[in-house]
Predict the structure.
Amino acid sequence: MTEEVQHKPLDCAFESVQDAFALNIDQAVEHLSGASLEEYYQGAEFLAKIGQGDKLSIAFLKTMPWAGEHFGDGSIKKITDFTYNKICRTPNKPSVEIFLDSFIIVVEHINKDQLDEYLALIEYHLEKTTFSIHGIHDTHPSPSLRAMIGNINLLLEQLDFKGIYEWINYGLRYFKDHPERQEEYFTLTTADSKAVFQRQRKGLLFSDIERPINLFQRALWKTDFMYAPYSPDFEKLEHFHPYLEDEIIRLPDIYGDLNGVNACKRYMALISHIIAHHQFTTKIVADNASPQQRFFAEVFEDARVEYLAIQKYPGLKKLWLSLIPIVDEFDCDDTDQSCLRHRAIMLTRALLDDDHPYKNEVILDYVAKFKTLMEAGETTTSNSLSLGLGYLIKTRGPSDALAKMYFKDTEVTYRDDNRSMWVFIEEFDEDDEIFHRETSPEEEEEVETIPPHYYDEWDYAYESYKPDWAAVYERLHTHTDASKIDRILDKHSSLVKQLKKVLDLLKPQNKKRVRYQEEGAELDLDIALRSVIDIKNGSQPDTRINVDFEHDSRSVSVLLLLDLSQSLNEVVGSSGQTILELSQEAVSLLAWAVEQLGDNFAIAGFNSDTRQKVMYYHIKGYSESWDDTVKSRLADLKGEFSTRMGAAIRHGAHYLDMQQSDKKLMLILTDGEPADIDMHDPKALIQDTHKAVQEVQQKGMYPYCISLDKKADEYISDIFGSHYSVIDRIESLPKELPQLFLSLTK
Amino acid sequence: MSDFDINQFKIELEPFYEAQSNEAELYTAAYNARLPVMVKGPTGCGKSRFIEHMAYKLDKPIITVSCNEDITASDLIGRYLLDANGTRWVDGPLTLAARHGAICYLDEIVEARQDTMVVIHSLTDHRRELMLDKKGELVKAHPDFQLVISYNPGYQSLMKDLKQSTKQRFTGMDFDYASAELETSIITKESGVDADTAAKLVKLAEATRNLVGHGLDEGASTRLLNYAGTLIAAGVEVKDACHMALVCPITDDAEVRTTMGGAIDAIFG
């Protein structure tokens, strides 16, 4: 029996607080300096006396030993003051407890000197989300503080402070006035929230270096495995290792630097290791080996395949070594914890590193055995198994079964889970898939519907993109009787004749002059004269004095994007025709004209019903010809919903960009300004469309708008610059559209 | 004209060439029958070196023409030039070779325009003669004359290919990069670098060759490996030499360069 150490009593009347004090004071004395301990007492006593009940002090007593130790003297006082001034004296007092509790996690992730930054972050969040309603004279608590602190582990682990501020600001920007949505955002459950979070993560995203990594595996091993990146911590899949299965490499979607090795190198190390397994590992039966036996067999197998890979590419050794941690040989106390992992990591290091620091005889013995075996050549996976079994027998101790496992620095991040090494003959006791789902025919149908494409949308007020904001669904347009289009063409037969004349003029396309030809169609007088002068001078004349002509081929791809919103159903003037019908006529004529020219041409329509549902209808694809199938789709045009133009332009550009031609023209036929029912600011979608137009131009396409809106002058140049025409007499559209196209592409 | 000495085109020192298989015998047989030869293969795998080597072995002069887009029929056949007394006919390289009995080697023939190459047709079939229409002379080929062209299938595109009528006048020989061991020994001998480094250079070259069609048009050639070896032998740091000779020349693609950097590290450590 050790003598009970007497502590200074806590001056507090709550019995529950005294209980908590008794539970935690030993920890506090152990971890805190004298000054901090004094702050600890004062803080706990103070918080019990401010009339907020006992909960505060209990949470405080529990967490402050850790916070005080981590952040140093003065920090407990700082936290006490912050708690009182910034939280307790505001309507946010119910969140105090969770705030204090968060320090257990916070100390794991931030440095000693980052306490102020953390407190500033919380203060910022509180200030921005606590709001008053005028007239009621009541201030409401922040709806989202609890939610945010609930995620503080993830936030601090994956983002830096700048990233957290970005994430918070985004939430504030869009959900400030909507408490429920705000809370959802800060619990990190909504798609928006996750998307913003993903973009702020520290480290290098795999998708950014997928190509170099892909080339790397091809260059060194001539393999061509696909990748399926996963988000390790985001999905809460702790200690989820990379692996290769079904020709797909699963790997973390993001890597930061580790031990001075940059993320790109880490991915290379990972790929090299996995492919080394693929090349040198043969499956062996797992059923006869216990988990511990398998564990050590895997250590030897990893070392074996790496040894073999290093024979081929010696530089890999340095790379891998830099990622294998070195632990202290005597750091693990086997009287009170299980040293399995500690032994394994030492062995791992020793097998690969010729200058390892370990003196343990069994390790040295097995390293020697391993080396002898490898130098003899011709090893297989079963050799690793027998080495693993032997090593385990030599080192096995009673502590191996202890639940407390030595874990620190025992993980080799680039290594896979070695599933490729084992084959299980008997069924698993614990099956991976808990539910064996029978796929019903309904579900299969579900798979057939194409998932939406997500596009960012520009927010002009904050000069930033809203990530994955608009969902664009692609569909083939419905169809009806194709003869309707033929009737339209008949009706405009005089116009067709006129167009034909223009087309014929365009068709024998421009000729290009090719100079400096030895043989050619005509004499190039300039060069010929120069040659004569050369001859007179007695120097060598150029004999290439002719010009030749080549056909300059027309290489144009055109996308015609039709606005199919509700407003198209309006009747125009006295004609009795709707805008839709006139558009149909115009598009038919244009399509016919383009077909005559042989240009690469596609027609698509779009409308939108909020950002969740932007529809993009294929009416004619680039590879389709102007036949009845296309005509029947065009005949069935309908006008409904709104005009979210930016998303449609981005989606159209996606396909137009893939066309192989010198010139890419995107014609947009619309009857009004971009608008949607979920956007109240009329400028927002105009600005977004402008941004989309800029993006399209940057990719080398030429957007051009044909507007049927008489009031278009007010906004259209803000969107399209000078690339637009406004057609005031909509009745003349069928005549003007083809001519406009021709003049654009002449 | 008569004092023209074709022997100036003979190769004096034996060019280093390591045979991959029986190509020397094949070529000698073709030469003995005076059959035109087309050598195909990727850049820098030793096509030109092989032809030079064979010319040396057979003790025949060789006239090499590097073809380009601007080359015209007159550049091959010859033309009238002005001199103090009026004009003077000057034979082009093809006429020279045919008249005096040399091997005429048209390097990278696809670079020349297709119609230019039609002038060689009469020399490459049973006629073995060349009409100099501007001069009004019919040159009968010397018994030692042989025509050799090189051709890199890697360039093959719609624009740059030989006419079938041209192709079908030649016997063909395929060249490729030598096997790893052979290439190692070539680099060791040619550049003076040690065998271990040479073997690593060859591994790096294989890595680049695996990337053909995935960001690279062609992998690193044996020639470039020799450059790298030469730099290393001259005391340049290995990675710098590899970057200078094997990465920088073949690609400007930043991502491919990242990959190559990784490969260099993986191979050289």
Q: What stands out?
A: DSSP finds eleven helices and nine strands in chain B. The first strand of chain B starts at residue 37 and ends at 40. The interface with chain A takes residues 72-74, 79, 81-84, 200, 203, 207-208, 210-211, 214-215, 255-256, 258-260, 262-269 of chain B (CB under 8 Å).
